[in-house]
Specification:
single chain; 702 residues; alpha/beta; 8-stranded parallel beta barrel; 18% strand; globular
């Protein structure tokens, strides 16, 4: 094997992969060099490769203790040691302040391996420690120490978890009598209250991650600026206490310019992000000024300062990034000169010069947290079902603040699949698995905590990223990509620990190219598989309700796929044709023929469950009707999966899908608003009947 291949293999860059269509792809030397460089590993010449290979081999022997130890609760902890001392004293500092200690002699531990590093002989032994309770602890062995993470074997599931159902919605798409042209946290609360009254156990929403306030048209919730913080455009400005107190803020809405803009934003069929941001941020600025004037020394001021203190360095860094984006007129931080470095003197100087602007952005996050916490329905069995994007945008605050944690010159994507024959590049930047481990997984833990804080179910987008990520060299195409391995067992363990502590169900979006054995690993961890109707077929036959796995979240569609109405009308195929996503007319015609076959197969599946109305045959391919929608919802509601999520777009009979992957900016991705308001939807008899049917099917399913 060539030295370059040995080096790439050693750091987890996979040599080849099979795509979903069964085609084998080999890793190219150029891709290997690029990904190695992104990890900070020199590989431009044979000399550099040889030196890097030696450094990789030696680095393990320099780890007296592992950089981080992850163990399973109540199981013996086996700790590899590379020590020269003969007498060992170990201590575990538990997170609750307790300690456990012990002693042993190195000669009593069997030697597993030996090496000579820098003319010194080192032996690999293994220290066996008693099992410990779950938590974040610290192990000391002589003068060395390392984080010790002890996790439960499985993620949280409600006691007696049987069959729940919920409604999945895009928050920005919600209309209501009060919102300002974009769905907000008060709309979320109204949606949850309505859903709970109909017997739903959960409301699922798109990622609420912070985007770019200076470029609000960059609206994809899956390309965020920060996965640690929230999008202030979801604030219900009028519900902030300062709005009721500030006559000046209320008067702003009566000015002709803002009143006209607000009227247009409310009436629009799509979210006008620039208009919405301009209105909201102008009023929010005045609310913050009022807060500073009135509440700096009272209980609200204390609550704000406590929020900022609890959020710590991450919030300070995020708010500083937003201030700098304004100062430089761009969030492309590579164009910020010395401020590209968060620790630079330039960054510190600008932060000192703009404390109130930084405080303003912290105030927005405080209000987001307050309103999201209030958007709940206590009677719901589960409650809020949140969504965690796979990573952050390359120009993001997260990347700027933690540049050493990311493989900055690469992008996350996907190899070719039936929905994009050329593969996908998502514009987000992957974490470096080695730096992630070296820092004790602190950033990953913070991400889970931030996204579970107000949620009782968390969908992890592209959950296979816990095992491997398809990394594409910057400027390359998906054909240039290769998979990079991640420490799956460690990441699953931490996910289980945070899941149990936050009583939060884990749903893994396991669509696309799924590695062999991965779904079984999810099942052992009690993470729900994400099962979408359109994909649940084999040999031309749709999976029957009783054939769905119990540990699953079942749904008809997703934000990236056609609505039920759009699926039946082939609207997604027409949209791809308009956007020239198909490679040829033949591909488009094949898609239409496959869709006709899928529709017949779906009718056959419904007929087998006695859900087709009299007069409809499996060959007639009837026009789309509400009755057909009800039959499909009933079919999925019968499934054995723990959770069934009905898309609000499907309940509302929407035809156009939220996002068309591969589309250009001409297609309104992440902008479409629902045709009807929440008030209209909640009084719609047909929707209520659909929900009642779902409740009956979930209750009667065995």
């Amino acid at each position: 094997m060539h030295a370059l291949d040995r080096l790439a293999d050693a750091v987890g860059i996979e040599p080849r992969y099979w795509d979903i269509q069964g085609h084998l792809h080999e890793r190219s030397p150029d891709t290997a060099r690029h990904l190695l460089s992104a990890m900070g590993i020199a590989a431009r010449s044979d000399t550099e490769i040889a030196a890097s290979l030696k450094a990789q081999a030696d680095s393990v022997w320099h780890e007296v203790l592992p950089l981080v130890i992850v163990a399973q609760e109540a199981c013996e902890i086996a700790v590899p040691l590379r020590l020269r001392a003969q007498n060992l004293r170990w201590t575990i500092d538990f997170e609750n302040g307790a300690q456990k200690s012990g002693e042993c002699s190195l000669k009593d531990l069997p030697v597993e391996d030996r090496a000579e590093i820098e003319a010194q002989a080192i032996s690999l032994t293994r220290l066996h420690l008693p099992g410990a309770q779950a938590g974040y602890h610290r192990l000391h062995v002589n003068e060395f120490s390392a984080p010790l993470i002890v996790a439960p074997a499985q993620c949280y599931l409600p006691l007696g978890a049987n069959r729940y159902w919920g409604i999945a919605a895009q928050l920005y798409a919600l209309r209501s009598g009060h919102n300002w042209g974009i769905g907000d946290f008060s709309d979320l609360r109204a949606l949850m209250e309505w859903a709970a009254a109909q017997g739903a156990g959960a409301v699922g929403i798109n990622p609420l991650h912070a985007l770019f306030l200076n470029s609000p048209e960059c609206a994809s919730p899956y390309s965020p600026s920060s996965r640690l913080f929230l999008n202030p455009l979801y604030l219900d400005v009028a519900a902030i206490p300062d709005f009721a107190e500030s006559a000046q803020a209320r008067a702003m809405l009566e000015s002709s310019s803002i009143a006209d803009a607000l009227r247009q934003a409310r009436a629009a069929s799509h979210v006008d992000y620039r208009k919405v941001a301009a209105i909201k941020l102008a009023v929010l600025k005045r609310l913050f000024e009022h807060f500073q004037e009135i509440h700096a020394g009272d209980d609200r001021g204390h609550a704000f300062r406590k929020f900022v203190g609890d959020a710590g360095a991450d919030l300070q860094s995020f708010a500083t990034f937003q201030m700098l984006s304004e100062h430089f007129g761009t969030h492309d931080w590579l164009r910020w000169g010395d401020a590209r470095d968060p620790a630079s003197a330039e960054t510190a100087s600008l932060a000192r010069a703009n404390p109130l602007r930084i405080a303003f952005f912290q105030y927005l996050q405080w209000q987001c947290a307050e309103q999201l916490a209030a958007a709940r329905a206590p009677s719901m069995a589960i409650g809020l079902y949140a969504d965690l994007a796979v990573s952050a945008d390359v120009q993001s605050a997260d990347h700027w603040a933690h540049q050493d944690l990311f493989m900055g010159s690469t992008r996350v994507g996907a190899p070719p699949d039936p929905f994009n024959e050329t593969g996908q590049e998502w514009g987000v930047v992957p974490l470096d698995p080695h730096r992630l481990r070296a820092t004790g997984y602190r950033h990953f833990i913070a991400l889970l905590r931030a996204n579970m804080r107000h949620a009782r179910a968390l969908r992890i987008d592209h959950v296979m990223s816990l095992m491997r990520i398809f990394a594409i060299p910057e400027g390359g195409t998906p054909a240039d990509g290769a998979y990079v391995r991640y420490p799956l067992d460690d990441l699953f363990a931490i996910t289980a620990l945070e899941s149990q502590r936050n009583r939060c169900i884990i749903i893994g979006e396991d669509l696309g190219t799924v590695p062999e054995g991965f779904r079984e690993r999810m099942s052992r961890a009690h993470a729900l598989s994400y099962r979408v109707l359109y994909f649940e077929k084999e040999h031309g036959r749709f999976r029957r309700p009783e054939e769905f796995p119990h540990l699953a979240c079942v749904t008809a569609s997703t934000h990236d796929l056609a609505t039920l109405h759009g699926f039946w009308a082939c609207e997604d195929i027409a949209a791809k044709s308009r956007q020239r996503i198909f490679g040829s007319l033949e591909q488009e015609e094949n898609a239409r023929q496959e869709r006709a076959a899928d529709k017949r197969a779906l009718l056959e599946a419904l007929a087998a469950e006695n859900l087709l109305l009299h007069g409809i045959t499996t060959q007639s391919l009837p026009e789309w009707t509400p009755e057909l929608a009800n039959a499909i919802h009933a079919y999925l509601a019968r499934s054995l999966g723990i959770l069934f999520m009905a898309q609000l777009d499907d309940l509302a009979n929407e035809r156009l899908q939220v996002n068309l992957p591969g589309a250009t900016t001409e297609h309104p991705n992440w902008q479409k608003r629902l045709a009807h308001s929440l008030e209209e939807l909640s009084s719609d008899i047909a929707i209520k009947d659909t929900m009642s049917g779902i409740v009956r099917e979930r209750a009667s399913s065995k």
